[in-house]
Fold each of these.
Amino acid sequence: MTIFEAYNDCKKQLQAAGIEDYVFESKQIIKHVTGYTNTQILTKYTENLNKFQQDNLTVIIKQRLIRYPLQYIIGRWNFFGYEFFVGPGVLIPRSDTETLMDVCLETLKDKQSPRVLDLCAGTGCIGITIKGECTAADVTLVDKYEEALNYATKNALHNNADVKIVQGDVLKTEGAEGQYDLIVSNPPYITDADMQTLQPEVKFEPTTALAGGEDGLLFYRHIASEYKKYLAPNGTLAFEVGINQSEQVAKLMEQNGFENVAVRKDYAEIDRVVFGTLKNV
Ligand SMILES: C[S@@+](CC[C@H](N)C(=O)[O-])C[C@H]1O[C@@H](n2cnc3c(N)ncnc32)[C@H](O)[C@@H]1O
């Protein structure tokens, strides 16, 4: 089977299974199986796949047909121009979270050597990217779970990011030390009801990275009230939020004394980030 035939066959099977992005995904799968770049594929599309590549392709298509996430199959994913290893046990970085990155970098742009705390760090995509974009920052990443911490450690090394990675339970206010100019978090925020209706791919991601309690606000409530003592004067707290959570999160930040609380929309025009500053600590 040639690369071109394999690509067409993959597209056909993914489309039939109702996978929305079947063209994009088929390209990614063929690149992964052959190890070729986009340009190489364009010039080598009449080449035959060898037996190993063909067997690998068959297994990958089978995995996708049961909706195992493409990102876990490929094993790495791009976030804000940086590459992160991903796999079972860790949340796949989402492009929505790039909006949170924009807000963080705006907050840090005039600071000399800011201290940053990334709570519920997962792959480390937020904290590691901040360190990559703002090299003078002193960044600490906190997560409770071993699998996530292993990915964060591997990803920090892969991206040459000199960050501190700490195991800690955010709901017990662990992992912070001293004062921070920015505390950022994309915590688990799915409500108990919505946990029952997850997309098939998301069901393969760890529940511990998704479930945010009955109303989805468990982590926001705790972080806004218990971590504010770790913010430096004029420090910023920035959250990613789920659909329809921005008003409630903004309100609970205000109730905790945060000022200039603002909401930022993502590329799909959905309220995605809520952030504010704490003046009087
Ligand atoms: C929504 S994921 C976000 C991961 C990453 N920040 C991102 O944006 O892709 C939430 C993360 O919170 C971690 N987590 C869940 N409960 C926690 C807790 N009690 N304390 C610390 N981390 C926790 C999960 O392991 C997961 O990595």
Note: The radius of gyration is 21 Å.
Amino acid sequence: MIDVRERAKALNAELVNWRRHIHKNPEIGFDTPQTEAFITERLLEMGIDEICNGVAGHGLTAIIRGGQPGKVLGMRADIDALDMKEDTGLPFASTNGYMHACGHDAHAAMLLGAARILSESKNDLRGTVKLIFQPFEEGGKGALAMIDEGVLENPSVDAIIGLHTGTLWKGLGSGQVGYRFGSLMAGADWFEVTFKGKGAHGATPHLSVDPIAMACQAVSAIQMIVSREINPLDSAVVTVAQISGGTARNIISPSCTISGTTRFLDPETRKMLQERIKAICENVAQSMRGHADVQFSYGPSPVINDMEMTKKLRHAAVDILGDESVVEVPEPTMGGEDMAFFMEKVPGTFFFHPSGFGEDKDYPHHHPKFDVNEDVLWIGSSVMANFALTWQDN
Ligand SMILES: [Zn+2]
Ligand SMILES: [Zn+2]
């Protein structure tokens, strides 16, 4: 049996090269053809040739068949960047106006690393591994699109794993792996409310039905949902992030729009937040002689880790890193992840791969100076590969 830890460490320089190439050439949304081509070339070099290109735009899947019978494990990495300008000053910084500011460049490289290790230990591999390189995680559309195109079929996937790298989690440092039973990341939805009234001259408010006044009341009232209606032991966020209405300082606008996001760890809370935002906005508008048009769009559900899969993940990680470096994440984060769509379909576990530099050298995700500590890329590859090699052991 291959020594996964040593093999992955020896691969780290290559993982760095792969990550830097993807970092330098970021692509966004479903439109990731260069990233797809780069990953395809690397897989072919490894002798992995059962590749399905063009899944959900420019996502791809690839199959590694083990030498022994067994189940099918999906291993997923997201590959898309963000529509923002990079300001890291790194020699391999992007110059095309997009940026890998969430670490998905590292995710793609680490999954390639796991693929490399597994392609070299096919004889020891039970069952099949399906590599899933997913576009458009930012915005939460890629996973669903891949599922709609049948990514979990043919062969049909029995379970799935994935990871997120970065600096999101307090108390976890580079060199460690974070796991959590149950809820790990929040679900996210979006809302947009248009308040409608009647425009008028700014000097004649009595002739108007003022939608900006409605929006202000509604934004205040919405704050009460979390503070007064959610059980303090549950978690929820309601953020109004945009407000727009009016064209001049002496005209009362006929409409005003607010939009924002909700976050939740529980499907019941999701429903409740939607119902209450709708009721509050409609009633506030009505009480002020106006009307509110409330629209929701669904984002990812909460990421809820399967108990058995998480136990196995912990086991696979302890094998590689030892007990003290495999840490239970104390609390879920309110960030969203469309990995949740896969995990609604098949049991899965999603784990954290801390890759900060420590002290004050770290920037948050989606920051123009965000960077990933490349020294620990091998950890992501080795833990995923080891999981694939061990998850069907008793
Ligand atoms: Zn992100
Ligand atoms: Zn991300």
Note: The chain has nine helices and 16 strands.
Amino acid sequence: MKVTTTLARCVTPDGTPMVLQEHDGQHYLKVGGVQLMSTTASSSEQQMAEIACERVGGKARILIGGLGFGYTLKRVLELCGVDAVVDVAELLPEVVEWNREHLQHVNGRLLDDPRVRVHVADVYELISKASGNPYHAILLDVDNSPDPLVQKGNGRLYGRDGIQLAKAALRAGGRVVYWSANTDKGFARALERVYPRVECVSAKAYPKAKRFTHTLFVGDRD
Ligand SMILES: C[S@@+](CC[C@H](N)C(=O)[O-])C[C@H]1O[C@@H](n2cnc3c(N)ncnc32)[C@H](O)[C@@H]1O
């Protein structure tokens, strides 16, 4: 029988246990026993990077909310130029440590890329404090969906004020992409009230998946 090994643990700001586990060569991140992500399914995380980078040029400034296992970051780095600056906001210092200690073989030494600036911070704070519309693209994959799992406070990112703040941090012509485990008509409508163009893109969890189980909500600024 294949054994599941707990490689590391921490506690989220709400006091919920979070674990990094390994089973049969795959890694799993679980919050309160619920899977937040795994190395078995990363297609939609990469697709969100492809959609976000469609319109960015060489000197792009990009914000990624949620490091996780770094699939989104890796794809962004592959797609944007050498002059890009990629801010990565990760709430939990342990996740940054685990990327260095346990996950380098998954996506490489991403955090040592000179284009990357790691902020151990709530991405909401970065967005709120961003001055002068710095970002060409903002990618938000901090939780399972607008229904928070990692911390209750994440709900504010998906509310009217959070949506407005993200838009205000985007340059003219900038794009936001939100990852979600679910379709959510209410969230799509909330985005439509703020952005002139919104698209809900169905995404597969892994390349051979028969169904499109995830949703990428895309908002474009004029
Ligand atoms: C689903 S994972 C992200 C997966 C990532 N897209 C990838 O490709 O591996 C969510 C990450 O967001 C982090 N997170 C949760 N809430 C956050 C917040 N408010 N600000 C920044 N990071 C947050 C979690 O600790 C976790 O590392």
Note: The radius of gyration is 16 Å.
Amino acid sequence: MSITTARKRYFTAELLNWHHNDNDRSLPWKSEKDPYKIWLSEIILQQTRALQGLPYYINFTTTYPTIHHLAAAKDEDVFRIWQGLGYYNRCKNMLATARFVANELNGQFPGTYDDIVALKGIGPYTAAAIASFAYGLPHAVVDGNVYRVLSRYFAIDTPVDTTEGKKQFAQLAQDLMAADSSSAYNQAIMDLGATVCSPRNPSCALCALQKNCIAYKQGMTTMLPVKSKKVQVATRYFNYLVLEKDGKIWLRKRGSKDIWENLHEPLQIETQKLVDRSAFTALPDVALLGLKEINYAGKDTQRLTHRIIISSFFTADVPGELILPEDGRWTDKKDMNKIAYPKTVLDFFKKNNYIIS
Ligand code: SF4
């Protein structure tokens, strides 16, 4: 389907008009020009909604006001501030990039798209956002919001998760962007997608682009954008045994071969299905410990993009010596708030007063 130049111009004019006159979405990083802070906000907002990311952005920019502060921070402290955002690889890459920019580039954040996209943890979307917001460079962002707005306004049904779809939408987004106001254009389309043209119930009645939106006129908003395949979601069952001895809790750091790398957790045993207290107690690794009494302490479900984690919690007091994996250690309860945990573990510790926040 070919889109005329006039129609493209009309879209951009309507979008920018809405942005300048009626877009009242106010977020602290929107008026920011410091590339370091823009980069921080973009890393925090990958896979995270703006309102959820906001307190993290404030905490990071207050604790580490410059890239040198972040680069010099201890991993453990940064992970603790990141705690709750999930996707810990983002945090790991963020630290690596901060140290690279601080040490190898003398603290100067790169100023071209190609140099920005070459940094660790930065893909085309984040690079375009930083390039346009910090330097006004003409690079259009393309993300879920953009796919949604463009596929609906122009009624494009090419699946957005195919090579063809990605190419088509990237080219269209670039064509539509007003080169002299790339920052406003990118901000506008992201905000429209996040606040008006939302995934399930778009507010078409209030939308400034309604008059020329084909999906709206033809009643197709819920059919667009099109995806060719569904995400396969697997369920995993984690069983946590919280061992307590003399006011200390046994904790280990998760390794690099799985989710939640470098975060701490109690003794964990994964099973193929949900187990109750008696089935858990009978697991060979648990039975070997020879504990007198194990109590069931609750269950929590955490949804990630490709998996659902169901965590069951059990507790036990340890009277004497126990043979436990070598990678763990007994941690004083008063020090437990200094350590980073997966969200599900943190919630359990807080709810059950292991950690007083
Ligand atoms: S009219 Fe509706 S579908 Fe079209 S751009 Fe606006 S919110 Fe989205």
Note: The chain has two domains: 5-223, 234-351.
